[in-house]
Specification:
This protein is of the alpha/beta class. It has helices spanning 18-25, 29-34, 43-53, 95-113, 127-132, 140-148, 173-178, 182-198, 224-238, 249-256, 269-280, 326-346; strands at residues 6-10, 36-41, 60-62, 76-79, 119-122, 154-159, 162-166, 206-209, 243-247, 263-266, 281-284, 289-293, 296-300, 306-309. The longest helix has 21 residues, at 326-346. The model has no long low-confidence stretch (mean pLDDT 92). This is 4-hydroxythreonine-4-phosphate dehydrogenase PdxA. Its EC number is 1.1.1.262.
Length: 347
């Protein structure tokens, strides 16, 4: 890539820590050393945050990517002008905030699909606010899938040695069990393999979790492991992938945390998220807040690059100036790495 990639960063929910962590990430000069960051959202919200928490920044408000200056200390904000500051309340669910966050997402998708930016990074949204605004999606992943016309996709979580992809995410646990099917497991295994290569991972050994306790224990605790997961593992091996499974999830994640696997396949949302967040989220019991919140969410299978922080809106600390930008910094760095790999792969 002859020039540093342009990375579009969404505002997230304006009532959340989203705008704060976006701005804080851009106070780190190393971000400007590796890319040209561009925030997409309401410029008034970002000016308000700067004043409220005392950041040494000034906003460059723009209406097109071509107007961006990419100057450290003066972040560019592609202004959607869709938040009424008189009505905005930190930590409060509202249709206005949901609509604003949704439109910042669809705008960066539009810019990426048009080739005006090289990758997208999303701040946290509140699903209830988005749905109250009339946009009925389970989360970012589903928005991206629809607006890019993508049918085969999956959520990949990345934090140091832990890389986790999911067979299903935003569905009920009952539905999640029903979605454990051979073809889907093979699909996400391939997406994980491609993701590991894109991230420069040398260890391509993949662990595939069992669904039931002890991976079903030969049918004693359920049949999905023998009837759906094992055949998927056998087919993946036949296709040349270095896979192991079904591995009881408690054992698999213990090994994954040490780097034994390059990446792992989880069968459902919490099976993957809980061990992942145990490694990346650091709670300070004395301060009663997170010291660090690390972890990147990458949507695999899209025609464009999308990374995200892997934490929520943190409404309880919104507007207080104490939110950690660690995950946002990592998400931007991952987007840059993926952008470089995509350019190299297409040359």
């Amino acid at each position: 890539m002859s020039e540093k990639p342009i990375i579009g960063i969404t505002m997230g929910d304006p009532a959340s820590i989203g705008p704060e962590i976006a701005l804080k990430a851009l106070t780190e000069s190393k971000i400007y050393d590796i890319c040209r960051p561009l925030i997409v959202g309401d410029a008034g919200v970002f000016n308000h945050i700067i004043q409220k928490i005392g950041l040494d920044l000034s906003i460059n408000t723009i209406q097109s990517v071509h107007e961006a200056k990419f100057e450290f200390g003066r972040p560019d904000v592609y202004d959607l002008n869709n938040v009424n500051l008189d009505e905005l309340e930190f930590g409060v669910i509202s249709a206005m905030a949901g609509d604003a966050s949704f439109k910042s997402v669809t705008k960066v998708i539009e810019l990426a699909m048009a080739g005006e930016i090289d990758a997208t990074v999303t701040g946290p949204i509140n699903k209830k606010s988005v749905n109250e605004a009339g946009h009925h999606y389970a989360g970012h992943t589903e928005i991206y899938a629809e607006y890019t016309g993508t049918k085969k996709y999956a959520m990949l979580l990345v934090e140091d040695s832990m890389k986790v992809i999911h067979v299903s995410t935003h569905v009920s646990l009952r539905q999640a069990c029903d979605l454990v099917k051979k073809d889907r497991i093979l699909e996400v295994t391939e997406l994980l393999y491609n993701g590991l290569i894109s991230l420069g991972e040398k260890n391509l050994k993949i662990g595939i979790a069992g669904l039931n306790p002890h991976a079903g224990d030969s049918g004693l605790f359920g049949t999905e492991d023998d009837q759906e997961i094992l055949p998927a593992v056998q087919e993946a091996l036949a296709r040349g992938y270095d896979v192991e499974g079904p591995v009881p999830a408690d054992t698999m994640f213990s090994k994954a945390a040490t780097g034994y696997y390059g990446g792992v396949v989880a069968m459902y949302h919490d099976q993957g998220h809980i061990p992942f967040k145990l490694t990346g989220f650091k709670w300070n019991p004395e301060k009663k807040q997170m010291d660090s919140v690390k972890g990147v969410n990458i949507t695999m299978g899209l025609p464009i690059i999308r990374t995200s922080v892997d934490h929520g809106t943190a409404f309880e600390i919104a507007g207080k100036g104490i939110a950690s930008p660690d995950a946002m910094v990592l998400a931007i760095e991952s987007a840059v790495q993926l952008a470089h790999h995509k350019t190299t792969a297409t040359v």
